Amino acid sequence: MYDIVLADDHVLVRQGIKRIIEENGQMKVVGEAGDGLQLLEILKETSPHMVILDISMPRLRGLEAAERIKRNYPRIKVLILSMHRSKEYLRQALASGVDGYMLKEDADLALYSAIEAIRAGKPFVSPLLDE
User: Fold this and answer.
1) Closest listed residue to residue 21, CA positions, set 2, 46, 48
2) If one looks up domain 2-130 in CATH, what number appears?
3) What residue segments make up the domains of the chain, in order of their start?
4) Helix, strand, coil distribution of the chain in percent, nearest 5
């Protein structure tokens, strides 16, 4: 089983992502956080393979949380799931050490592809950012 922690300040978004992930049968959501600080607390108590997080969260933004995760838990893969199409956000995310950047608008179609690419050690960037 591939364990994932979700972090997004919108409960409905987390529920939708969780449903998509767990339909696969080979992945499981083992924790959910509504902000970056809560995410870091969850990581003290669980050892997921991957964290999927939003950029825009209260208390600790996603990019800062990603930097801390990569520094303190380097084996955990990090996938940003964001509404931001800006190449600047993408540059900042990649500079923070994330393993992938995906737009929320294509999560229903490409989430499995993103997770599988990152599991295989390949970076993933949402195809919609090339448009």
Assistant:
1) 2
2) 3.40.50.2300
3) 2-130
4) 50, 20, 30
**What is the C-alpha R_g of the chain?**
13
Asked whether 101 and 80 are in contact (CB, 8 A), the reply is: yes
pLDDT in tens, the chain (131 residues): 999 999 999 999 999 999 999 998 899 999 999 999 999 999 999 999 999 999 999 999 999 999 999 999 999 999 999 998 888 999 999 999 999 999 998 877 889 999 999 999 999 999 877 65
pTM given for the model: 0.94
Judge contact between 53 and 37, C-beta under 8 A.
no
Rounded Cα–Cα distance for residues 105 and 82 (Å): 8
How many CA atoms within 13 Å lie on the side-chain side of 83?
6
In this structure, the number of other CB atoms found within 10 A of the CB of residue 14 comes to 19
- On the CB side of 45, CA atoms within 13 Å amount to 8
